[in-house]
Amino acid sequence: MIIFRSAAQRKWLRSVLAVCFLLSLSFNTSAHEGPPFPIIVDKSVGPCIVSVWTDPDVGESTFFVIINPQPGSTVPTDLKVELGVQPTSGRLAEVVYPGQREDLRNQVQYKAVVFLDAQEMWRVRVVLASALGSGEASTTVEATPPGYGRWDLLIYLLPFVAVAFLWLRAVTRRRATRRLNATDG
Hints:
Layout lengths: L6 H18 L12 E9 L2 E8 L3 E11 L10 E8 L7 E4 L1 E4 L4 E9 L4 E10 L2 E10 L8 H34 L1
Antiparallel strand pairs: 1-2, 2-3, 3-7, 4-5, 4-8, 6-7, 8-9
C-alpha cells in the first residue's frame, strides 16, 4: 500500500485521478478512423468474384475493388470497372467514377477515388463490363467525417506519452528518495 506523506503528494494524486477520470469518459461519435474495411465480400458479379474495401470519409474517398476469377477461369483482360455513388436520400443524381487498374503482384485490383459531399448514407454500385460478360453489385455505406489529418498520430499517442511520463517521474523520484536516505543514514 502506498502512503502519501505530504499534502503535495496527495494533491498530485488527486489531480492525476481527476485527469484519468476525464479521459475515461466516452464521447459519442460515428466517425471511422483507420484502414479500409470491406463493404462487399466475395460476391459473384458477371465473370468475376468481387470484393470492395473503402474508408468512406466526407470529401475524397478511396474505394478498392478486388477482382478474382470465377473458379476454372481467368480475369478478362478487357475488364472495365466503374463505381457509382448516390446519396440514399436521392438528393443528388448518381455519379459514376472509373476504376483505375493498379499493378499489384498476385492480385487484380481497381482503385476509384470518389467524392462524398456530406455525412450520410450512400448507395455504392460496382459495375463490371467485359466481352465475357457484365454485372453489377450494390450496397450502402455511411460517409464519415475525416479525422484530424496529421494530428491523429499525436492525439492517439498522447495517453501512452502521459503514462511514460508518469512512470519516468516515479522512477526518478524513487531514485532521488533513495539517494537522500542513503546520505542521511
